[in-house]
Design a protein that fits this description.
about 200 residues, Rossmann fold, five-stranded parallel β-sheet, globular
């Protein structure tokens, strides 16, 4: 049996996918198909949570820590709300730079906590989910989201991979976003699950 733990913001919650539950159950089905084992999953999504909140939960919530400790596969969605908050403010370069630095620091902290929880388990995998651009009409938004995705890449190693969804959403926002023009709809979440599936399943299979 494969234990899959999903933690993060509203993307992990599946907000916007009215009947399908977001990418988590879709990816769980992919895992089951690829590894030919039954999959059980825990979905720990916190709508509106910035990366510092997610890190605090990973550090301080016993139930979350035990779920992560026992997971074979972990997905993380974090950092999008950091950029949203920067955009809501003065939307200047300094605000975006600070948001990028904070999210990088906090995601590094999340991965460090996961590694500590996994000291006795060598075969597990972590997948960070990159961001799409929900505001293609805002000229600077794409550049900052690309920078965010690029900084996720620095965390990649034998265990950690990044699922890139930016290109798949680009130019298809009308089809892939929910009525709020921000969160994915069911089709958008299916794209995210496909991106996760494409990262492979090493070292599990």
């Amino acid at each position: 049996m494969i234990h899959y733990a999903a933690i993060g913001d509203s993307l992990t919650s599946g907000f916007g996918d009215l009947f399908g539950g977001g990418f988590v159950p879709k990816y769980a089905n992919d895992i089951q198909h690829r590894l030919q084992q039954q999959v059980v999953y825990d979905k720990m999504g916190m709508s509106g949570a910035r990366s510092d909140k997610i890190l605090a939960v990973i550090r301080g919530n016993y139930g979350v820590r035990e779920t992560l400790r026992n997971a074979d596969i972990i997905t993380v969605t974090a950092g999008g709300n950091d950029l949203v908050d920067a955009a809501k403010g003065q939307s200047n370069s300094d605000a975006y730079r600070q948001a990028l630095a904070k999210s990088r620091h906090n995601i590094a902290g999340m991965l460090e906590e996961i590694r500590k929880l996994k000291t006795s388990q060598s075969t597990y995998m972590v997948r960070l989910v990159g961001l799409y651009n929900p505001w293609p009409s805002v000229p600077e938004s794409g550049a900052w989201i690309r920078r965010f995705n690029a900084q996720l890449e620095i965390f990649q190693d034998a265990t950690v991979k990044v699922a890139n969804v930016f290109d798949a959403f680009s130019g298809r926002e009308r089809d892939l976003l929910f009525f709020d023009h921000f969160h994915p709809n069911g089709r958008g979440y299916a794209i995210m699950a496909e991106a996760l599936d494409r990262t492979g399943y090493k070292p599990l299979g």
